[in-house]
Design goal:
The chain is α+β, with helices and mostly antiparallel strands. It contains three helices and six strands, in the order αββββαββα.
């Protein structure tokens, strides 16, 4: 499993890699970091080192997450642990398309 520093660094890398697509970062009052486009969040990094990906209308996000052991469905979001960190960028890009 990745440590907190590695997970934060990966989040930063995703933000930088997706910046050309209009992606920005926001933080809520609890310090939860989100990737957004046009103010709509599509990926959130929780304090538990799990990343949530917006799956509203996102069959591609759900289909990909269904293949992962750590993925959990949380209504409009799919949550994936750091054990599947190698899939975070793919999921973030699929969630971004739906924004």
């Amino acid at each position: 499993m990745m440590g907190p520093m590695d997970v934060q660094a990966l989040f930063d890398k995703l933000r930088i890699d997706l910046a050309d697509l209009g992606v920005a970062e926001t933080r809520d009052d609890q310090g939860v970091r989100s990737l957004t486009r046009e103010g709509v969040p599509f990926a959130r990094l929780g304090p538990d080192e799990r990343m949530a990906f917006r799956a509203v209308g996102g069959g591609a996000v759900r289909a990909h997450a269904d293949e992962l052991v750590t993925a959990q469905d949380h209504g409009d979001w799919v949550v994936v642990s750091a054990d599947d960190v190698s899939q975070w960028e793919v999921l973030a890009r699929k969630a971004l398309v739906m924004v």
